[in-house]
Amino acid sequence: MNNILIDYNCIDFHKLLFLKGKQIGLSDQESYILNIMLLLHEQGVSLLTPQMIAKYCTSDMKAIDQAMLKFVNERYLDRHNGILDFKPLYRRLLDEKVEEVNQVNLIERFEDAFGRPLSQTEIEIINSFKRDGYDDQMIVDALLEAVRSNVLNFRYIEKILSNWARYGKKMRNKPIENTTNEAFSDEVKNLEWWKV
C-alpha cells in the first residue's frame, strides 16, 4: 500500500521529514540539508553536489559533505549508477523496514588491488567518488576494470567511472565465462585423441 502512496506522490515528505527527522536519527541541520536535496530532486536535478546545496543554506561545505556521505552510508538514500534514489528515506519516514545491503569495504578492496595501504589522499579520492554519485558496486567494478587493464591509478579509475556515467556501463574486459562440457557434442567429448 505504501508503495502506491510513494509512486503517486500522495504524501508530503517535506513535512514528514521535519516532523520525524529526529525520530529517524537526523539532526536539525541534516534534516534541513536532506529537505533541500529532496526539493532539488523533485525539481528534476539529477546530480546533487555540496556546492549546489550550499546555495540554499548557511551550513559550511564540510558539514554538507559529511551529511551527504552519512545519507548514503547509513542508507537514507541509495545510489544506482550515480543517481540518488530517495525511496529508502520514504520507507524510513513511513516506518517501514529498509532492507539491508551488503556493504562493500572499498578501502579493503583498493588495498588488496594495490597491494599496499592507501594514503589519506587516496582515501579522500574514494570518498569523492561516492560524493560524485557512484555507488559502491560501480566503484568496485571500475577498480576491477583497471586491474584487468593493468593500469592501477586513481585517474584511470575516475575516467572509467565518468565514461560509464556518460555512456552507460560497458566493461571492456569482461570476465571470461567458463565453458562447460555441455557445449561440446558427444563425438568431441568421447574422442580418444591418443588413437588419432
Gross geometry: extended
- In CATH, the topology of the largest domain is named Arc Repressor Mutant, subunit A
Main β-sheet, in a few words?
2 strands, antiparallel
How large is the count of helical segments?
11
Which parts are unreliable, with pLDDT below 50 for 5 consecutive residues or more?
175-181
Strand order, biggest sheet? 1-2
Strand content: under 5%
Helix proportion of residues, in percent?
40-55%
The SSE string, one letter per element, is HHHHHEEHHHHHH
Q: Return the CATH architecture of the largest domain.
A: Orthogonal Bundle
Could you tell me the number of beta strands?
Answer: 2
Summarize the structure.
Residues 108-168 form the DnaB/C C-terminal domain. It comes from Sharpea azabuensis. This protein has eleven helices and two strands; from the N terminus they run H-H-H-H-H-E-E-H-H-H-H-H-H.
Features:
2 strands; WH-like_DNA-bd_sf; DNA replication protein; Arc Repressor Mutant, subunit A; two-stranded antiparallel ribbon; DnaD-like_sf; DnaD; about 200 residues; single chain; mainly alpha
Explain what the structure shows.
The N and C termini lie far apart (69 Å). Helix 7 packs parallel to helix 9 (136-148) and helix 9 packs across helix 10 (154-167). 54% of the residues lie in helices and 3% in strands. Residues 175-181 have low confidence and may be disordered. The chain is mainly alpha-helical.
Fold topology:
Blueprint: H1 2-7, H2 13-20, H3 28-42, H4 50-54, H5 61-73, E1 78-80, E2 83-85, H6 87-93, H7 106-114, H8 120-131, H9 136-148, H10 154-167, H11 186-189
Helix pairs in contact: 7-9, 9-10
